[in-house]
Amino acid sequence: MWTQHAISLSQQLSYYKEYQGKLAKVAGSSKAKSIIKDALYIVGFGSSDFAQNYYANPFLNKVYTPDQYSSYLVEVFSNFITVSLFYSATSTFIFIFISVVRLYMETQG
Predict the structure, then answer these.
(1) What is the reported pTM?
(2) Taking CA atoms, which of 12, 52, 85, 96 is between 20 and 30 Å from 42?
């Protein structure tokens, strides 16, 4: 299954910190801070984050209801946003949360 090759949020943050260090080596510390501070970051969270985990993992849908798992994901994404903002200081982020599954569930019942 291809979902096993997804990069976790914590690993993505680790790569981002690594990139910051490499950028500082190439551009210099001051210029790197400016690049990072002035950058625009777009982060998308979508229904696939829900569906590819909740429905593909037989243990998750036995432990959590869809609402509970949705709430859990919102908490994980909120923590990711907080940490991302910490590492980026005053950078501009655009966060997109597209929950087609949740929207579908709400219209069905």
Answers:
(1) 0.61
(2) 52
